[in-house]
Amino acid sequence: MSSSSPDSVFPSEEMMPFVVSPRTNRPRLDPVDDVVPRLRTLRLHREGTPLRLHLGCGEKHFDGYVNVDYPPSEHTCQTVIGADVFADVTKLRMQPRSVDEIRLHHVFEHFKRSDALGMLIIWHEALKVGGRLHLETPDVLGCAQQLVSDAPFGIKQAVIRHCFGSQEAGWAIHYDGWSEEKYRHVLSRLGFSVETKTWRWARPPYLANVEAMAVKVTDMGRDELLAAADALLREYIVAEVPSELGMWDVWRRDMRAFLATALPVPQPPASTPEKAHAATLTEPCGSGPRKVVVKLQGGMGNQMFQYAAGLALARRSGAKLALDLSFLLDRTPRANFTYRDFDLDLFSLDRDCEILKGSAPASANLSILLERQYGFDSRFASAGAGVYLDGYWQSPRYFAEVISEVRRTFTRFTRPLDALQTELADRIASCSSVCLNVRRADYVTNPAANACHGVCTESYFHSAVRHIRSQIPDAHFFIFSDDVEWCRKADLVGDAPRTIVSHAYAGERFSSYLQLMMGCRHFIIPNSSFAWWAAFLGAGPQSIVIAPTPWFNDLATEYMDLMPAEWTLLSRNQGPSTGTGQPPLVSVLMLSHDGARFLPEAIGSVMSQTMGNLEVVVVAAGSTDKSGEVVTHLAACYPERNIKFVAAGTSQLAGCWNAGMATARGDYILAMRATDRLAPRALEQGTTALLKRKGCTSASGNTTPVQTGGGDRSRWQGSVPPCVLLRRDVALQTGAGRDGSEWNGWMNWASGSSADVHVSETWLYYRPSPEGSDAPVTESETELRRELRLAADALAKQDYAGAIQRIQRAVRPAMTPEDLGLAKSLLASIAKARASATTGAVPR
To answer: 20 to 30 A Cα–Cα from 343, which one of 40, 420, 640, 671?
Structure first.
C-alpha cells in the first residue's frame, strides 16, 4: 500500500460484511430532494449520527450505510436488490459539509472524464472536513500487465471486459481508466489526502483492482475546484495544438454543464472558518473588476505575445495587468511536453504588473477568454477588465494600440551584454548583417512538437539566402541556433561570409542571443516565436525579413494574422524542380481577386508539392491591389520554377478561366484561389491516379476549411471550392462557353460528378470567408441557379440531404431544359455517391 496519509486505513469491499436488504419496496430520491432531510424523513438516517453513503450499490447492502442505486427497471441482469433507496447518484442534492463518508465500488469508471471530475467536485463540497471518500475501480495498469503476459486467451478476454465494461446497457460502459498514481494525482489536487492499494482476484481470471481511500483535508471553493479540474483535464491532451486545445475546451464546458444540472453552487455561511480559509486562498488573484490576468505558457517568445496582448487589454480598459505563472510552475508529468520557465523577468516590465505565483486559481472571479484558434480572435476586441486570458495570442493585431510600449519593454533587457557579446554586437552593427536562425531541438526530438511545427528544410534556407544575396551582395550571415553542431555541418549559405554564433554568446536563458539577433539588419527566421520577435523588434524600414510558410504542419490552422505584410514568405519544405525549360505536366490556375496578401502562402503550397514538373499561372480577376508585383517578386524567389502572372481585366469566371487557359501549358489543369492552400501530395496523387487509368480525364480530392479563429463563419460555409485535376482537353471544353454557360462545367467540378477518380484525402484547404480573393463571380446567376450551385456545394461536403433540399427548391415548371438537365445530373451524382462511398483512389 502506498500512502500520503498513513494514519487512516479504510476497510475495503472484500472486508465489508454485506447482506441482502430485507425490504422489497424502496423509496426514491428525486433530484429536487435535499438528501439529508429526506433520508431522515425516511428514517434511513438519524440526526447526530454519521451519514455514510454507499452509491451505486447494486446487489450489495452494507450495514451502517445508506445504500443508493438505480431502480431495478434500469438494470438488465440484477437479481437481488441491495439498495435502501432508489436514485440517480449523479443527481443527489447534498448540502455543503453534510456527509461523513461516500463510497463507490466499480461505479466510478462508468463516468466519462468530465463527469467524473464534476462528481469529485460535488463530493468534495458535500463531505465534511475529515470526511472520507472510498473509490474502487479496475486497475488499468494491472490489467495492462495481464494483457501483455502469457496468460490464456480466455483470461485476456475477461480482462478486456473488466477494462471496458460489460456493455449490455448504456450505463455498463467504462469511460476511463484509473491507477494508484492517477488516484493520488487527481484527488490530492482536489483537497484530499490519499491512500491507495491494489489487489487481484484469488481465482481465475485474477482481475486487477485499485482502491483509493481519501480524506478531505481542506475546504476548497467552487472556483478553486474548477481551476484544479481544468488543469487535470488539460493533462489529457496529446499536444499543444489548436485542435487539442479545442477538445480541452469542450471537456471544460461539458464539466460545467454537468455541474449546472447536478446542483447549484453551494454558498457556505459567512461565519464559518472554511469560508475565511477560501477567501484567503482566492485573495491573491483578486476579485476586483479592474484587473486583466494573463496565463503564461510556452517559451520566451510565447510569453512575450501573451504579455503584449494582456498589456493592450489592460491599457484599453484602464485595468491592472497580472501574470499567472501557475502553469509554468506546475511540474506535473506530461507526455511529450517541454517544461518552460518564467522568462519575462529578462525584460523591464511595467512597474504595475503583478506576478501571481500562489496556489490559488488566478482565474477566480474573472471571465475566462479562451483562445479558440490561432489567428485573430474577434472576441478580444470587445473584452475588458475582469478577464483571464488563456491562449497564445500570436498576432500583432492584439497589441497594435500599444505597439510602441511593447517595443520599449522588449528592448529593455535586465541582463546587459558582457564584453565578448558586446564585441560581437559591434561586428553585427558594422556590416550588412543577416540573422539566420535555425530552430531544431524539441522540434526534432519531441514527437508532439514535431507533429505540430515540423522543421524548416535546407531548401528553405537556400532559397532565402539566394534571395538575400540577390538584393544584398555583401551580406554577412550570422547563424544562431539551438543546434549549433547541425549548422556547422549543413551548407546553409554556400560561399557567403558567415559567422556561427556559439552558445557562449547565448546569455541567461538565451536573452543575449535575442539581443544580438535583434541587432542584425535583415532576417531569415524559422517557424519560431522567439525568432519572430527578433525580426519584429529588430527590422527597420529597409530590412528584408523572410519567414517560412506554412508556419504549422496542419494546413487547416490559420497563421496569416501573425505575418506582417512587408515580410516575404517562402515555402519551408520545397519539393523537387525540373527547371523552367521542360514543358509542365500540371498547370495550377490560381484565381486572385485582390488576394496579394495570401499569394505567398498559396504559391508556397504549390512549391511544396512532392512532384516538380508543374507551373503556376496567377490570374488577377479584376484585382486593384499589388498582385502583379507580388507574383513578380515570388518568381524571383523561386527562379527554378515557372510562375506566371495574367491580368484578366475582369472578375467574371469565364473571362478569368479563358485567360488562364490561354497561358497554361500543362497536360493537366488544377484551379484554386489565392486564399487556398494545396496539400503537398495533391498533384502527385492526382496525376498518378490518372496516368494509371487509361481513359480517365479527371480526378478529385477532398477539401477542408481553414480554421480562422473567432467570428461567425456560418454564412460562408456554403462556398466550398472544388479541387479537381482535369485533363487539358476537358478543361478547354469546360471554360469555352459564354454568357454563363461555363457554369455547368464549374458546377460539375464543385459536385465532383464529372471526376473519373476520387482520392479520399484532403487536397485543398480553403478559407470559408470573404476576406481577400473569393472565387470570381459568374456572369449571371438567377435564384434558381443559386439554389443549384448551393446544392452542388452541399454535395461536395457529402451533405446529401441538404443537396436534395436545394434541388427541390430550384425545380419548377418553367425550368429551361439546360437547368432541368443540371438538376437531374446533380441528383444522379447524389445517388452515385451514396452507392459508391469508398476510401482511397477508386474509379467512379
So the answer is: 420
Residue 813 has a CB neighbour count (10 Å cut-off) of: 4
Name the residue among 779, 780, 776, 778 with its Cα closest to residue 651.
776
DSSP state letter for 11 = P
Q: What's 100's DSSP letter?
A: E
Beta bridge mates, 192:
216
Nearest to 369 by CA among 384, 389, 385, 394: 389
Q: CA–CA separation, 253 vs 255, rounded Å?
A: 5
Classify strands 476-481 and 291-295 as parallel, antiparallel or unpaired.
Answer: unpaired
| C-alpha to C-alpha distance for 707 and 373, rounded to whole angstroms | 7
**Do β-strands 367-370 and 476-481 pair in parallel, antiparallel, or remain unpaired?**
unpaired
Write the DSSP string, 791-809: HHHHHHTT-HHHHHHHHHH
How far is C-alpha 214 from the chain's CA centre?
35
Q: Which residues pair with 669 in a beta bridge?
A: 587, 726
Give yes or no for a contact between 666 and 605, defined as CB atoms under 8 angstroms apart: no
- Rounded to two decimals, what is the model's pTM? 0.61
CA gap 699, 683 in Å, rounded:
10
Q: Which of these ranges, 2-16, 513-527, 590-604, 661-675, has the smallest mean pLDDT?
A: 2-16
Q: CA 356 to CA 320: how far, in whole Å? A: 13
Q: Which one-letter DSSP state was computed for residue 653? A: H
Mean pLDDT, the chain, as a whole number? 82
Is-contact 306 277, C-beta < 8 A?
no
Nearest in space to 314 (alpha carbons), one of 336, 328, 293, 329? 293
Total Cβ atoms within 10 A of residue 489: 8
Q: What is the pLDDT of residue 446?
A: 86
What is residue 674's DSSP assignment? T
Domains 2-7+17-244 and 419-440+450-570 share a fold: yes
DSSP 3-state of 442: helix
Are 428 and 478 spatial neighbours (Cβ–Cβ below 8 Å)?
yes
Q: Which residues of 789-812 are buried (b: 16+ CB within 10 A; e: fewer)?
A: bbbbbbbbeebeebbbebbeebbe
> Which CATH number describes the domain made up of 575-780?
3.90.550.10
pLDDT single digits (tens) 680-714: 999 999 999 999 888 888 888 888 888 764 333 32
